[in-house]
Write a structure and sequence with these properties.
The complex is a heterodimer of chains A (about 200) and B (about 210). Chain A has one domain. Chain A is built from 8 helices and no strands. Chain B has one domain. Chain B is built from 8 helices and no strands. In chain B, helix 3 runs parallel beside helix 5, helix 4 runs parallel beside helix 6 and helix 5 runs antiparallel to helix 8. Chain B is globular and about 50 Å long. The chains are: A mainly alpha (about 200), B mainly alpha (about 210).
Chain lengths: ~200, ~210
């Protein structure tokens, strides 16, 4: 009990230590740019499920898709972001993102194994919608480069999570669980699609 | 037991007093050093910190070290000397002219070198050396011109070049020693992230 005042004080110190640094004027927006960009894909369930589904599908498809998709996806997504930044409109962005969750979820659920180019094209097509959404939503006063790197890294981490979960594919029970997970993502995609259209 | 209890109480009170001072210190802000970080340790250290905290400089240099490491020990050994030397010479030129290139070109090295890593491009030793010279020349000149305008000048460029050597050596050595199987794919994914960052920076600069 005698340690309670000290502990209270220590908690105060810990909260003070959690304060974000203010890097004034060095590079405008660097203090928050990376964190804001990193949190952006994670803050939307539609993005999260679609990105994890890319990793799940890659794990199901095996080599070389398992590494080709995470290497190509960020660059194609960045191209979508570039379109957004340049103000080039992309019709139905929200519908495209919702459809990505639906299609990728169905692909995992049905354990569909198309030719590599077809899988890459499908994923790249949806990457443009995700990138466009990220590119048009930069908060004012943030560093463009760090924001961009933040959301690219977060997207890559979501792929990695999907691939790690997809590793259960090597066991028969895991294959069933993976297909069920794909079904879950597909159902969520239907819900997002309903929201986007309604 | 009573003695132990008193000791604990005294220790607790002392700890409380000590810890109470820390939040007070956090309320004592330092001056914001505008445009260039001043470490208070001199221009060389200012340059070191500038490089470490400027992603537009740091990331392309790391990307080239990644690329050289992926291409093997010969290319890694060449790049870790050519890049800092080129950086230093161009930085010296930049301090003389003090005319920085357009900031809107910062996307170019990220996209090109990141793309080289992502695609695992097979370049000859000579071609990699040319890339290292061009990258060092562009970033070094930019640094030199900025340092001449901000004040620290050539000494800061010397600090930057030395840090480029250390950073690229560490990264290239790590990658050259550890680049088979899945690890190679992980380096290539990192390259694709860098290239994607460059592509998006192009968008920001054209916005």
């Amino acid at each position: 009990m005698r340690f309670v005042p000290a502990m209270r004080c220590l908690i105060g110190v810990l909260f003070a230590a959690l304060a974000f640094p203010a890097f004034a004027h060095i590079q405008p927006g660097e203090a928050g740019g990376f964190v804001t960009g990193f949190l952006h894909p994670i803050s939307g369930l539609d993005h999260v499920l679609a990105m994890v589904a890319v990793g799940l599908w890659g794990a199901q498809l095996g080599v070389p898709a398992i590494w080709l998709l995470p290497v190509t996806f960020p660059i194609v997504m960045a191209f979508g972001g570039l379109l957004g930044l340049l103000g080039i409109p992309l019709p139905g962005v929200e519908i495209g993102i919702a459809a990505s969750a639906l299609m990728l979820g169905v692909a995992v659920m049905t354990d569909r194994k198309p030719p590599l180019y077809a899988a890459a094209l499908l994923v790249a097509f949806f990457a443009i919608f995700h990138g466009h959404a990220h590119g048009t939503e930069l908060p004012p006063g943030q560093s463009g480069l760090l924001y961009s790197l933040g959301f690219v890294v977060a997207t890559g981490c979501l792929h990695a999570i999907g691939i790690a979960i997809g590793a259960i594919h090597r066991w028969p029970v895991g294959q069933v669980a993976l297909r069920l997970a794909g079904g879950g993502v597909g159902l969520a995609g239907v819900f997002f699609l309903w929201q986007a259209i309604a | 037991m009573a003695g132990d209890s008193m000791k604990l109480g005294s220790h607790s009170a002392s700890l409380t007093r000590t810890v109470s001072l820390v939040p007070l210190l956090t309320l004592w802000p330092l001056n914001a050093q505008a445009h260039l970080i001043s470490t208070g340790l001199g221009s060389v250290y200012d340059g070191i910190i500038h490089f470490a905290l400027t992603p537009e400089d740091l990331i392309p240099a790391i990307a080239l070290a990644l690329f050289a490491g992926l291409r093997g020990k010969d290319q890694a050994r060449r790049v870790i000397f050519v890049l800092p030397l080129s950086w230093l010479l161009a930085g010296f030129l930049g301090t003389l002219t003090a005319v920085p290139p357009p900031a809107s070109l910062a996307w170019l090295p990220l996209l090109l070198v990141g793309g080289m890593v992502a695609t695992d491009l097979r370049l000859s030793l000579g071609a990699t050396s040319v890339v290292a010279i061009l990258l060092g020349a562009f970033l070094g000149y930019t640094n030199g011109a900025a340092m001449a305008q901000a004040g620290p000048g050539l000494r800061a460029v010397l600090g930057i070049s030395a840090t480029v050597f250390v950073a690229t050596t560490l990264v290239a050595a790590l990658v050259a020693a550890w680049h088979s199987g899945w690890i190679r794919i992980a380096w290539r994914v990192a390259g694709s992230w860098i290239a994607a960052g460059g592509l998006l920076l192009l968008g920001w600069s054209l916005r």
